[in-house]
């Protein structure tokens, strides 16, 4: 059930990418975005112990993972009692 939900959601995201990117922009297009969405779906499936849908898919945007994984710095004044 969970795998099916993730696969359905991924397919909807792929369709959205195709609709919103009919033409390529520098470094990004619908097929590359489809690879990324399948990569993310695989990661989510494996995180909950399920079989990956597209095990051959790799991350076409390795820089995005680095940005997401960066530790967020806090602004002193936003997180203090002052």
TrEMBL record:
Q: Which GO terms describe its molecular function?
A: oxidoreductase activity
Xref: Pfam families: Ribonuc_red_sm
GO BP terms: namely:
deoxyribonucleotide biosynthetic process
Q: Which cofactor does it need?
A: Fe cation
Q: What is this protein called?
A: Ribonucleoside-diphosphate reductase subunit beta
Organism equals Pseudomonas syringae pv. solidagae
